[in-house]
Predict the structure.
Amino acid sequence: MLNTTLELSRLEDTHSSGAYVKRDVQIVRGQGARMEDAAGRSYIDCVSGHGAANLGHAHPAVVAAVQQQAGTLITCPELFHNPVRAQYQAALCAAANMPRVFLCNSGAEAVEGALKAARLATGRPGIVATKRGFHGRTLGALSATWNSHYRAPFEPLLPAVSHVPFNNIDRLVAALDDTTAAVLVEVVQGEGGVHPAEEGYLRAVQEACRANGALLIVDEIQTGFGRTGSLFAHQPEGIQPDVLCLAKSIAGGLAMGAVLLGERAGEFVPGTHGSTFGGNPLACAAALAVLDTLQTTHLVERARTRGAEALAHFRAHLSSETVRDVRGRGFMIGIELRGKVAPALRALQAHGVLALSAGRTVLRLLPPLVITDEDLWQVVSTVEEVLNNGI
């Protein structure tokens, strides 16, 4: 029986698909904002499962909800009514101020559902997305994703999808015509380098969509559920999406996604869309616990204030010799370097901080909302030392 860390890592490498470049660490457990490797070393987690662990690891409310529901009913297709699903759909719709929701299993599925909903509602084929945008790896979501690194091996993709510069309303308006079903946009571009929407941009996009008859699809797969310092990142922007895509942290780390439908989007006609595992009671129970926790604690507000403090510190103390720009909102922070980010990621891991890239030159920090002040400032200090001194 294989039982050593090295043997098990080699076993995983032997049978893994090859789709992932793995780091030289084997994570075996997590608690709050920390994870532990097989050797017992603790790391501060600023990866957060690519943004899927806003409540951190083993959050008591999520653990209790999953344990209780797993012993009651795990799966139940939407062919049947289910009380846990009903409660979650009502709570999520109320939180987002949208009347209907389709539940699925991932962010890419949420984007696929949103594209189908827009075509159904408008009878038009065209989608306008933004440069640097990332929306997923399935063929429809990939068609709306801009980076050729993701797209090129799988072309030709969906026709009638065009890309315009982010934060440029004139170019977006010029791209709209009577074939445009929807505009798909992020509030903060995550994978594209942590670029927030400029003041007034999303309101102008909404107005352009209304004038054109197109739907506004907002992708909050990474920014939703408190990540940027509000429950949903679009809410402080003063807009109301026609379609809202959610996933990642929706169920505390369990696989789940959602497509929220506004009045202009209508609803799916029976038989036009579906999901075997979508809306399963286990995920819904976890998601209810997540939403309740975020709505009854100060975690979201704390992400806003502590994130602003960390951003301000980075802007004041990181060396311009190594750092080109610091961007972000709440606990979604991007530090654009003058060189490649990979060496910084390795150095941070060696000093007990796990972080992400957002392209080749941007260091991305996504700490869980539950991170302690002590751990947050340990992250800030370590990043500062790595980037300023090359430790």
User: Anything to note?
Assistant: The domain at 73-296 is CATH 3.40.640.10 (Aspartate Aminotransferase; domain 2). The longest strand covers residues 180-186. The chain has a mean pLDDT of 97. Residues 114 and 259 are 6 Å apart (CA to CA).
